[in-house]
Design goal:
The protein is an alpha+beta fold and about 260 residues long. It contains 6 helices and 13 strands. Strand 4, helix 3 and strand 5 form a beta-alpha-beta unit. It folds into 2 domains: about 100 residues, Gcn5-related N-acetyltransferase (GNAT) (Aminopeptidase), CATH 3.40.630.30; about 90 residues, no CATH class. The strands form 2 sheets. Strands 1, 2, 3, 4, 5, 6, 7, 11, 12 and 13 form a 10-stranded mixed beta sheet that branches. A 3-stranded antiparallel beta sheet has the order 8-9-10, with no helix packed on it. It is globular.
Amino acid sequence: MEIKEISRNNLEEHVRLLKICFPDSNTTYKYLDWLYFANPSGNVVGYDAVVGANVVGHYACIPIHVGNRLGLLSVNTAIHPDFRSKGIFQDLANRTYENYKVEFSFVLGVANSRSARTFIDRLGFTEIGNLNLRFGRILPPSQNTRTWNRSEIEWRINSPKQRILKKRVQDNLLELSMRPYKFPFKIRSLVSEKPHSEFEIERIRKSKTIGFTVDWVKGYRPLIRLPERLKPSPLVLISKSLDGSPIELDTWSFLDFDAF
């Protein structure tokens, strides 16, 4: 078995492995190429475990910004059933964190309850909170959230997997919406195209956008939570510092990762 950095040359192998591990995920070559190699913030980082010509283990992260800090979003973990319980996942993940800790200061992830527990127990992650499917006020972005510039927003809304609609709400503030597969309604989120002044932040906070969303907001308890069965799975937001400094987050929404 060889451990190799993720390469575009192995995208077909990545698709094959992800379909074996997650038969319902509908992963395609076009989607992985978009996720891994079209991101304006940078290309995918991570490692593969390779036996012969086959990728049997895969751990992938993509670069993201939170404020002025550059970090990683953990997006795909897959170990072939014949190679599980051999420590491959921990090896691939720890190599990624060790070899990229100078360039990136943190790792964020959203996982189901079981996977989140594995990241916490084996890789030293911390649980931040659960994303709720809810109806109510769609809270505007604060300073401590994933930040987007215009090119990153255009990349995000052009995901090959899910159509995302864009509507301008205020100057530099967009409402993005989608209708995930089997959802009876659209879910919505607000995204800022650039950092706001304190005056603009206060004005944006007074916006009264109402609708369905999937998000986590620090200190906010939803008035109306909708059934968990409507989400792909319970969604747990987790983090790990790579430079020793804590990652400050106030909010995270379905647009900040790509579960749908």
